[in-house]
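Reply to dn_fold:

You asked what the input looked like. This is it:
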Amino acid sequence: MDRIPILKMGHFLLVTIQVDLYDRLALSLENDLINMVSQVDAKGVLIDISAVSIVDSFMGRILGNIASMTKIMDAETVVVGMQPAVAITLVELGLTLSGVHTALNVEKGMELLQKRIGKDQTGEEEDYDSND
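and this is what came back:
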């Protein structure tokens, strides 16, 4: 697989990773995603990693980079579908994924993005936990 598909859904981009990412594919995804955020003026990015069984420190750094870059471009990033083994590995590696919001599944991730975007548009803070 040369590229990970990026789907546009309204103001959001949806990325469903169906394979374990090797370094070159992860870098390609990072580049493609940032370019797509700019091209379509996306306000949110949802990354579904439910099919990913291994997240190493490099992949963790790529997710953090994506969140940082999209935030600079006025978009939020939510990662959904993290398997328990992946969460355990990230904690054991000491990776906090700062700037990355998480949700249990795609539906909850979309709800979180809508809340985050709504907050940004009104300028008001909403009382919720982004790591539900």
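Residues 46 and 110 are 7 Å apart (CA to CA).
Hope that clears it up.
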